[in-house]
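Structure request: SDR family oxidoreductase, Streptomyces longisporoflavus.
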Amino acid sequence: MTGTTGTTDTAAGIENKVIAITGASSGIGEATALYLAAKGARLVLGARRKDRLTGVVDRITAAGGTAIGVVVDVTRRADLKHLTDTAIDRFGRLDVLVSNAGTMAVSPFDDLRQDDWDAMVSTHITGLLNGIAAALPVFRGQRSGQFVNVGSTAAYVVKSPQAVYAATKTAVKVITEGLRQESGPDLRVTLISPGFTNTEGVGKGGSPEAAAALTRRRDEIAMPPAAVASAIGYAIEQPAGVDVGEIVVRPTMQD
Ligand SMILES: NC(=O)c1ccc[n+]([C@@H]2O[C@H](COP(=O)([O-])OP(=O)(O)OC[C@H]3O[C@@H](n4cnc5c(N)ncnc54)[C@H](OP(=O)(O)O)[C@@H]3O)[C@@H](O)[C@H]2O)c1
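Returned structure:
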């Protein structure tokens, strides 16, 4: 189907869209890659762990899908540029950038885990901005494109000891809204705000006490990452002129 700009990207749906996803080696990013691949998207997947990324790419290609893995650290500008360049080189365009990479290394302030604070700031804020800088000129040149940014319900309800995490996810929300306002008629900008999701990232890093409490809670109430993947798919499959601003998706058990 041909869209108004004469390209194939502006049609509704997911099939054939070229979609880059950061943090695709596990959890929500992995589930989103599998979901979108099954719907016929052509994927460029980024993360730091090459072995895990290769595993996701292999599963997709074995099932008849199309995916390329690129080792990416989102805190590095050049890596995001390499991710978007790969999409252009291999597929001739980029329709969607899903900025999902993240770390939930939470802890009380008294623990002074400054490296974890820095990692959350650089991954969620600098990493998101690096993605915007890499994809925005591509989208402007194409006169189409969609940013899908993964925030968190932590941006709405601050719970101790998650303040730094919540602050960085609040920044994701604010950046996304500002970007939407500047995006103009051709681009789409979506915030996906998941609640507790059953991934390996919950309880990873951070203080051992906080990690244990989060992991316990995850095992009691968390929803599967596929629930977030289908929300992302919903935002992507809308027609070109329809911009899904935000989807909040959380387990019914979450307060
Ligand atoms: N699980 C939840 O309850 C929940 C709720 C709300 C929002 N979220 C958000 O959802 C996103 C995905 O988290 P998840 O739950 O799926 O956890 P996860 O399984 O740990 O996934 C995190 C992903 O981000 C990647 N990543 C981390 N730092 C990176 C960096 N500097 N550069 C590139 N990739 C990086 C990881 O891959 P590598 O280690 O291989 O780089 C991994 O693929 C995060 O932004 C998180 O904040 C999660």
